[in-house]
Amino acid sequence: MTLEAGVVAVQGDVSEHADAIRRAAANHGEEVVVHEVRKSGVIPECDLLLLPGGESTAISRLLAREGIDEEIVAHVDAEKPVLATCAGLIVASRDAHDERVDTLDIVDATVDRNAFGRQVDSFEAPLDVEGLEEPFPAVFIRAPLIADVGDGVDVLATWDDKPVAVRDGPVVGTSFHPELTADARIHDLAFFENEEASL
């Protein structure tokens, strides 16, 4: 069976995420077709979904305008896997501490935008991630801080004692950009080894 993957393509590293999904699928002997999602009607046909970074206020506005927001929530309600990265995590959260961001509330966490600093404060760090045998080379760019998580949320990784990767049922969220490396293990973890999601 060929899997159908959607990458929300209103902003962010769409092609990089698509490539990472294909590499992760190949590692499991799976075939996958990746669709760029810019309008409603695509997500209901998708087995897995990726919400990339960008500018969170613009992303939330565009998702609502196109009706994509409700389809993302329905995807999660169906227990299909989602990976939300950087600004995608902000939009996915329960509360972004910013009235301009209309969050989806699919990750029971509060997030502070740009808490790790500005673009010039970007950095790369080796992260110990639950489920991965070797550290992951995480790239942080204007990264959000996961301020707190609900009782049902698993913290998968921390940096400087702060959560930077979490799992809430079928949704994995990261403060960093896993697509900016040749390492597809975060996409693998979210889509093919997430025991709390169903494909």
Features:
12 strands; 199 residues; 7-stranded mixed sheet; 3-stranded mixed sheet; globular; Rossmann fold
What does the model show?
With 199 residues, the chain is of the alpha/beta class. The protein has one domain (2-191): Rossmann fold, CATH 3.40.50.880. Helix content is 24%, strand content 32%. The protein has helices spanning 14-27, 56-66, 68-77, 87-92, 185-191; strands at 2-8, 31-37, 48-51, 82-85, 93-95, 107-112, 123-127, 136-140, 145-149, 154-159, 162-168, 171-174. The strands form three sheets. Strands 2-1-3-4-12-11-10 form a seven-stranded mixed sheet, sandwiched between helices. Strand 10 and strand 11 (162-168) form a beta hairpin. Helix 1 (14-27) packs across helix 5. It is globular and about 40 Å long. The N and C termini lie close together (11 Å). The mean pLDDT is 93.
Q: Strands, helices and their partners?
A:
Layout: E1 2-8, H1 14-27, E2 31-37, E3 48-51, H2 56-66, H3 68-77, E4 82-85, H4 87-92, E5 93-95, E6 107-112, E7 123-127, E8 136-140, E9 145-149, E10 154-159, E11 162-168, E12 171-174, H5 185-191
Parallel strand pairs: 1-2, 1-3, 3-4, 4-12, 5-6
Antiparallel strand pairs: 6-9, 7-8, 10-11, 11-12
Helix pairs in contact: 1-5
Helix/strand-derived category reads: alpha/beta
Query: Superfamily at the CATH H level?
Result: Class I glutamine amidotransferase (GATase) domain
Parts with pLDDT < 50 across at least 5 consecutive residues: none
Largest beta sheet: strand ordering: 2-1-3-4-12-11-10
**Alpha plus pi helix count:** 5
* Helicity level: 10-25%
Evaluate the radius of gyration: 15 Å
Q: Give the integer mean of the pLDDT values.
A: 93
Q: How is the quaternary structure best described?
A: single chain
CATH architecture: 3-Layer(aba) Sandwich
Biggest pleated sheet: 7 strands, mixed
- Distance N terminus to C terminus? 11 Å
Order of helices and strands: EHEEHHEHEEEEEEEEH
- Total count of strands: 12
Strand content: 25-35%
Outline: globular
User: Which CATH top level class fits?
Assistant: Alpha Beta
Number of structural units classed as domains: 1
- CATH fold type: Rossmann fold
